[in-house]
Design goal:
cytoplasm, single chain, eight-stranded mixed beta sheet, AB_hydrolase_1, 2 domains, globular, Rna Polymerase Sigma Factor, Chain: A, alpha/beta, AB_hydrolase_fold, Rossmann fold, 12 strands
């Protein structure tokens, strides 16, 4: 792993106060990197906070500075698109603990050296606290909506539970109120792959020629399998070989699906930090919205008042299933919160929220237009 993942100068603010963390510690000198799209109305009442997923970043609808690829939700955010920047001011912040400009393990600690594994343990609620502090700096008191998919949906639900006065609407897509044992198990496989790589060096690899690139690639490969559906993998790859005549019965990438996963893993190491992966996956595993509020999920939304919720699941998503989403719906119903829910059909599995699903476009546009 290279010593830095941010050779550009991201747009960022320094929070004016230390950030309190769920661990009981405070994180000082916190920087939050962010991007905005569309103009903030004079009344400051058209702001939407977009929350990114585990390996996402703030470059929602602009070219990624490291990969040169389009933003991760460019199809959803822009002029005339479902999240229409002719109408809305969209803010997306890189979560703390990540590696695209916000304070994380690669950032300099008080002694000037990278935090590495000295970085404090963080939670989803800590990420949301940092986003709320960013909104304060930007002068945005109340959001028109907070929107997120996957880990971004966790942040959206957490903001509604912990800062209910700060948003009028919540759109959670392909998400959950807590991680299952299976979710945690898949993440632990990835973490162990990183830590077993000699290049990890106990997390102290910044400034070195290399890092735990092989371990991080394996972690990405394992996680990527969970983002896809079995039907989608079968349809795209099946058991097709790269070159049937050259089949060697060895350990090269004979099958197309093997080559695809290896490409996903290797390309990931060019833009993401291994220690950030450890910290963020752990934050996701700790997430349990019910436990944060006395053990009853409905109590998490007791202060939601008139906040409107829209929850979306996909029929092929086995990572965060429709049953997971219905649990949140039942909790919202228990406190009489206004909530709509839809399960959409899509062949892509968990990644459906990032891909071309026209029905999702209609749901998003409709919810924001109500």
């Amino acid at each position: 792993m290279a010593s830095t993942k941010t050779p550009h100068a991201p747009r960022a603010v320094r929070l004016p106060h230390p950030l309190p963390l769920d661990s009981g510690r405070e994180l000082a000198d916190v920087h939050v990197a962010y991007e905005t799209y569309g103009e903030l109305a004079p009344a400051r009442d058209n702001a939407i906070l977009l929350c990114h997923a585990l390996t996402g970043d703030q470059y929602v609808a602009s070219t990624h500075p490291l990969t040169g690829k389009p933003g991760w939700w460019e199809r959803m955010v822009g002029h005339g698109r479902p999240i229409d920047t002719n109408r809305f001011h969209v803010v997306c912040a890189n979560v703390i603990g990540s590696c695209m400009g916000s304070t994380g393990p690669a950032s300099a600690g008080p002694d000037g050296e990278p935090y590495a594994m000295r970085f404090p343990v963080i939670t989803i609620r800590d990420m949301v606290r940092a986003q709320a502090a960013l909104l304060d700096v930007l002068g945005i008191d109340t959001l028109l909506a907070v929107i997120g998919g996957s880990m971004g949906g966790m942040q959206a639900l957490s903001l509604a539970a912990n800062f209910p006065e700060r948003t009028n609407r919540v759109l959670g897509i392909a998400t959950t109120a807590r991680h299952s044992a299976q979710n945690i198990a898949f993440h632990e496989v990835g973490r162990q792959a990183i830590m077993a790589d000699p290049g990890w060096n106990g997390g102290d690899y910044y400034g070195a020629a290399g890092g735990p690139e092989k371990g991080l690639a394996v972690a990405r490969m394992a996680a990527h399998i969970t983002y896809l559906s079995e039907a989608g993998l079968t349809d795209k790859f099946g058991r097709r070989l790269q070159d049937r005549d050259a089949k060697s019965f060895g350990f090269d990438a004979d099958f197309q699906v093997e080559s695809y996963l290896r490409h996903q893993g290797l390309s990931f190491t060019d833009r993401f930090d291994a220690n950030s992966y450890l910290y963020i996956t752990r934050a996701m595993d700790y997430f349990d919205l019910a436990e944060e509020h006395g053990g009853r999920l409905a109590d998490a939304f007791g202060g939601a008042g008139e906040t409107r919720f829209c929850l979306v699941s996909f029929d092929t998503d086995w990572l965060y299933s429709t049953a997971d989403m219905r649990e949140v719906v039942h909790a919202l119903n228990a406190v009489a919160a206004p909530v709509s829910f839809v399960e959409l059909g899509a062949p892509y599995g968990h990644d459906s929220f990032l891909l071309d699903v026209p029905a999702l476009d209609r749901v998003v546009a409709g919810f924001l237009s109500q």
